[in-house]
Write a structure and sequence with these properties.
18 helices, 5 domains, Peptidase_M64_IgA, Collagenase (Catalytic Domain), alpha/beta
Length: about 650
């Protein structure tokens, strides 16, 4: 049985370039050394830290899988005839030439062993790591490299240029030139060396400048000092320790695409909503068309055909293309296309209330304030809801806070469409819907936009009023209401007075009553705002009560003044914790009501639970409060 270790797995081998590192000259006791060498070479080839020298490999890292195939040799090392060294190794690798730089072994035996040990589509790039420190390597259908040499990773990259991208040597070596005919296919079809200084295959790159200088036609290459021209003054095919030239990088990139084949998949579990999968979305443009007309370029992920104007029966198509800049010729070779149609049934129910039963359907509501209910979420999936005009609520008979629930995760597309479902698989999509309602929470889908329409200072002032009057977190609906009032012309002080009236409606929860004395009011505000369980000190109490009695302050303006004063303690050795506590409560309020848009099903529940969450906040910690909310990080993304 093959001794195969996975080093990197980014996807199915059918759509990846699979690198197989093969051990040569490692004894059974040296397996760990081989695996360490293989990992080191993999990092050198694909790691961004070596990006200057390994490009374009690191740019296309997600195109690759890698494994290490260990084959034990009887003896360690490799044959070195010039040094009178002969060892018994599995693939009979030998370092030829006066300096041993031509290193290779039984290529056919390597190919057969790799073919027997891996699936047919899982060994596009075979690299034999030879356990020797003496510089050497070779290309061909298999790349060979001296694993112990200090320049080993550069040797590997150079040799891969031969074996994978069809690159030729650019250095001059008259002693071997006669062995490499200029009529050989590899030379006549080379992307970076040519027998003509004017009719060059890299014409699309002429004049391009990078760290190697300017792409042009420089005489010398393919082991010859004259009669051959190369694209750049230097490159890795000439000297180690420098980058590949632009035409060489292009050859690699095109070879990657040839190896991975059909890299694009387009799927749809919700009508009109298409999920895209590529090895790395950042490498591509995504051109969407509806009935042949371009409608949108996206960055991958999901495409909302209905939001882009698609209607029932329309044809939806996608074309992807490489945007890395590494490819100027044969860009069409990087393109992939997929096509689908909007064939799901479209329902147009009348009336304000509708219970959804059918799966795989598109629901277009009228202009009413609709309540759309999904009473059996486990069976009514694959539904796209367009609430239309009006204020619409999509209601689920399930919990949001239960991670095992089919409705546990919320996301939002750039189109504004909200996705509801499992962690990686949405089951419902909603547009023109203002609120989601679950059996434990409500989610206000407009509060983020409204919160961003006022200043951060104004938003925090509103949130602090909830702390001062109720010592609780704001619910999203309530906060959204007061944002609207603020934008409509009410001042923070006026809103503070309104909070006082609202607080008296829930005396059991808030402690406020219509008959509350001025002294009791001041003490409550001190407790809630300044974190003082005993209330105000006598001096402060007398001061604030006197101002209320004289009419210098209303309830709202007094609260605003106390809140402002609390922030002046920031950094104070004695009272700095007061400002920190208030800041932390605002931080939790932002997360609960704005970032997550949460609220409870009744005003009483909002007060009781909001107070419990606020009570868990300290001057140094908010995690206990976040945990009490019961929503996990990453569960709601509505930004």
């Amino acid at each position: 049985m093959a001794d195969l270790t996975t080093l990197l797995n980014t996807g199915s081998s059918a759509q990846r370039v699979d690198i197989v590192f093969v051990a040569e000259g490692y004894t059974a006791a040296e397996k760990a050394k081989f695996l360490a060498d293989a990992n080191s070479y993999l990092n050198s080839i694909l790691g961004s830290a070596n990006g200057v020298l390994n490009a374009p490999f690191s740019n296309y890292k997600n195109f690759f899988n890698a494994s290490a195939l260990f084959v034990a040799s009887e003896q360690s090392g490799t044959d070195q005839p010039n040094n009178n060294v002969a060892v018994n190794t599995y693939f009979n690798a030998t370092q030829h030439g006066s300096d041993g730089r031509l290193l290779y072994g039984d290529e056919r035996k390597v190919q057969d062993y790799v073919a027997q040990s891996t699936s047919a589509n899982a060994h596009e790039l075979t690299i034999v790591l030879v356990n020797t420190k003496l510089y050497g390597g070779a290309g061909g259908s298999v790349a060979w490299a001296a694993a112990g040499n200090s320049q080993a990773s550069e040797i590997v990259l150079h040799e891969i240029g031969h074996s994978f991208a069809g690159l030729q040597d650019e250095y001059v070596d008259a002693s071997v030139a006669s062995q490499f005919s200029m009529s050989d296919y590899g030379f006549t079809h080379s992307p970076h060396v040519s027998a003509s200084p004017t009719n060059v295959p890299w014409s699309a790159w002429l004049g391009y400048k990078d760290g190697l200088g300017t792409v042009g036609a420089y005489e010398g290459g393919y082991y010859r000092a004259t009669g051959v021209w190369r694209a750049t003054l230097d490159s890795k095919m000439n000297h180690l320790g420098v980058a590949f030239s632009a035409p060489e990088k292009e050859a690699f990139a095109l070879a990657y695409y040839h190896a991975i084949g059909d890299y694009l998949t387009m799927s749809s579990d919700i009508p009109g909503l298409y999920k895209i999968s590529t090895p790395d979305d950042s490498l591509f443009s995504f051109d969407w068309k509806i009935n042949g007309n371009s409608v949108k370029n996206t960055n991958g992920d999901y495409f909302d055909a209905y939001a882009a104007g698609g209607t029932s029966g329309a044809t939806v198509s996608l074309t992807t293309s490489d945007i890395t800049g590494y490819i100027r010729q044969h860009l069409a070779d990087t393109q992939q296309s997929e096509q689908s149609s909007l064939s799901a049934q479209t329902l147009t129910p009348a009336g304000a209330n509708y219970s959804v039963a059918a799966s795989n359907s598109m629901l277009r509501m009228d202009g009413s304030n609709n309540l759309i209910s999904i009473d059996a979420p486990q069976s009514a999936m694959g539904i796209y809801v367009d609430g239309g005009a009006g204020s619409d609520t999509l209601q689920f008979n399930a919990k949001l806070g239960d991670l095992a629930s089919a409705t546990a995760y919320l996301g939002k597309l750039a189109s504004g469409t909200v996705l509801i479902g499992g962690k990686d698989t949405p089951h419902w999509a909603a547009t023109n819907v203002e609120k989601l309602q679950f059996s434990d929470y409500t989610v206000n889908l407009g509060v983020q936009a409204d919160a961003h329409s006022i200043s951060t200072a104004q938003l925090h002032s509103l949130e602090e009023l909830y702390v001062a009057y109720f010592n609780r977190m704001p619910d999203a609906d309530g906060l959204d209401y007061w944002i609207t009032q603020l934008k409509g012309g009410m001042s923070i002080k006026q809103i503070g007075d309104a909070f006082y009236s609202a607080a008296t409606q829930f005396p059991a929860q808030t402690g406020f009553t219509d008959s509350l004395s001025n002294a009791d009011f001041v003490n409550l505000i001190y407790k809630n705002t300044l974190g003082r369980p005993q209330g105000a000190d006598q001096t402060g109490l007398d001061y604030w009560v006197g101002n209320l009695v004289s009419g210098a302050y209303t309830h709202g303006s007094l609260v605003a003044a106390i809140l402002s004063g609390a922030h002046t303690y920031k950094g104070d050795a004695t009272w700095g914790w007061v400002a920190n506590l208030l800041d932390n409560k605002v931080t939790v309020a932002d997360k609960f009501a704005v970032e997550w848009g949460l609220g409870y099903l009744t005003p009483e529940a909002s007060i009781v639970n909001g107070m419990a969450i606020a009570g868990a906040v300290t001057a140094t910690d908010i995690q206990a409060a976040i945990k009490l909310i019961g929503i996990a990080d990453g569960q709601i993304h509505l930004a």
